[in-house]
Amino acid sequence: MANNERTFIAVKPDGVQRGLVGKIIQRFEDRGYKLVALKQVTPSKDHLEVHYQDLKGKPFFPSLISYMQSGPVVAMVWQGLDAVKQGRVMLGATNPLQSAPGTIRGDFCVQTGRNICHGSDSVDSANREIAHWFKTEEINDYTSDQINKWV
Ligand code: RTP
To answer: What gap in Å lies between CA 28 and CA 40, rounded to an integer?
Structure first.
């Protein structure tokens, strides 16, 4: 069901370094998406080369890999209606100078090579990326009913 669609969102090393993790999480929570997985990881070169396999051969590929390896990344899975498409809208255009104000990139950054966040670009990519970054047992299936029993 589309309501349970999942997307992979990551705060890149520059976003972590600049203390933007909380703000990015807040936007997804405020919008109504549900956080179902979260971890901080410094990814290996091999891991990133698989993640960005579609970009192998692009002139910026080596600098992209070293940028993404330059510090911890906060990897997340967000769930909800049209999460993949809306996640991309919330992130803004790849080049922050073309991102609308109100989007994450449009509000917090100016360079394509330091664009602070990643979001899956299709449901197929999301499924591939979630499986690449998370083990099944790291993804939490829960409803707000279960949470409400404790508050
Ligand atoms: P992402 O995968 O990180 O969410 O970005 P995207 O889909 O919006 O853009 P994509 O074309 O997949 O590029 C991945 C990341 O590579 C860096 N990039 N640098 N120097 C350049 O021309 C250039 N183009 C892309 C960006 O960090 C981009 O997010």
So the answer is: 17
| Average of per-residue pLDDT values in the chain | 95
Give per-residue pLDDT as tens, 65-86: 999 999 999 999 999 999 999 9
Residue 118, ligand 1, Cβ within 6 A: yes
Catalytic residue (one of 47, 51, 118, 132) = 118
Q: Strand, coil or helix: what is 21?
A: helix
CA distance 20 to 63: 22
- Is residue 20 over pLDDT 90? yes
- What Rg value do the Cα atoms of the chain yield, rounded? 15
Q: Which of 30, 31, 34, 39 is nearest to 11 (CA)?
A: 39
Backbone phi and psi for residue 70, each to the nearest 5 degrees, phi listed first? -80, 0
Six-digit token string for 132: 């690449």
Ligand 1 midpoint to CA 94 (Å): 6
* Nearest atom of ligand 1 to the alpha carbon of 94: 8
